[in-house]
Amino acid sequence: MSIQSAGESPHDHPQGPGGAGPVDDTATGPVASRSASSGHRTAAVIPAAGRGLRLGPGAPKALRALSGTPMLVHAVRAMTRSRSVSLVVVVAPPDGADEVRRLLDEHTAPSETSDVLVVPGGETRQDSVRLGLAALPDDVDSVLVHDAARPLVPVETVDAVAAAVREGAPAVVPALPVADTVKEVRVRDDGGPEPVTGTPERSRLRAVQTPQGFELKVLAAAHAQVAREGDGATDDAGMVERLGVEVVVVPGHDEAFKVTRPLDLVLAEAVLARRRATDGF
Ligand SMILES: Nc1ccn([C@@H]2O[C@H](COP(=O)(O)OP(=O)(O)OP(=O)(O)O)[C@@H](O)[C@H]2O)c(=O)n1
Ligand SMILES: C[C@](O)(CO)[C@H](O)COP(=O)(O)O
């Protein structure tokens, strides 16, 4: 794995979202070599610039340790283990890009061959993803957007999303059926009981995870539209839906859960302990 700063992309011509231009046959290095077999280049953007307020006081969430290793490092490894991914852009807390580079250097194994680029993030997840997309070189065809807060996603899930995009789906999300019954309510800000306004049919609901995979051109257009209209969305696929582009679901995984609240840390440590016992890592 080679860690680079923004502006030191493996290519000489980084450009903004929408820059999914024709494949550059002159590209060299790991990005070119990993993707050369299929002619399709997939990068990953990892938004990691959040504070982790719901996790409680402490360092930014992505930098907190799971079994002694920062959550972000687990998330980067989840991407670099996939043979589909040749470049990873980490979007760091705006004041933490140097620390992120140092941590990635410290935890890098020589066998990890993807390039990793670190750029500073923004105010919201959406801003951070947009900044990550802006750092992608123009020879990238598709992009996986993966939360640093989902550090334990199995490589099979990453591969399944990447393969579905490579095979022609413009937008792909991993998701699981919902276990609870879900109610729609009229939101009250005064703390009073919220009236239920509906019960969506559970069999048609899916809880959506990451990585979400997209043709780069499609995701760039979706982010541009949302930025123009000043709108927001809680996930990238939601923005693509507004473009009228079809989003499809592939099976998600229980271990791709998002570390959001303190109890999620307990679950993450348990999953890692089980992996150490069964797989040796
Ligand atoms: N300004 C932001 C906010 C969030 N994220 C990233 O988006 C992912 C999903 O966000 P979430 O789990 O909500 O993380 P936080 O915003 O850090 O959590 P909280 O809402 O509890 O503060 C995380 O990897 C987080 O680092 C980001 O890159 N930039
Ligand atoms: C993108 C996401 O992980 C899909 O479930 C989720 O929407 C992120 O939400 P958050 O509130 O930013 O954690």
User: In the CATH scheme, what's the topology name?
Assistant: Spore Coat Polysaccharide Biosynthesis Protein SpsA, Chain A
CATH superfamily name?
A: Spore Coat Polysaccharide Biosynthesis Protein SpsA, Chain A
CATH architecture verdict: Alpha-Beta Complex
End-to-end distance, in Å?
A: 19 Å
Order of helices and strands: EHEEEHEHEHEHEEEEEHHEH
Q: How is the biggest beta sheet arranged?
A: 9 strands, mixed
Determine the fraction of residues in helical runs and give it as a percent range: 25-40%
Shape: globular
Q: Which structural class best describes the helix and strand composition?
A: alpha/beta
Gyration radius, in Å: 19 Å
Describe this structure in words.
This protein has 281 residues and is an alpha/beta fold. It has a single domain (2-174, 207-279), classed as Spore Coat Polysaccharide Biosynthesis Protein SpsA, Chain A. 31% of the residues lie in helices and 20% in strands. It has helices spanning 30-35, 71-80, 97-106, 125-134, 155-166, 216-229, 236-243, 262-279; strands spanning 2-5, 42-47, 65-66, 69-70, 85-92, 115-120, 142-145, 171-177, 184-185, 196-198, 206-208, 212-215, 248-251. Strands 1, 2, 5, 6, 7, 8, 11, 12 and 13 form a nine-stranded mixed beta sheet that branches. A two-stranded antiparallel ribbon has the order 3-4. Helix 3 (97-106) links the parallel strand 5 and strand 6. It is globular. Bound molecules: cytidine-5'-triphosphate and the ligand C[C@](O)(CO)[C@H](O)COP(=O)(O)O.
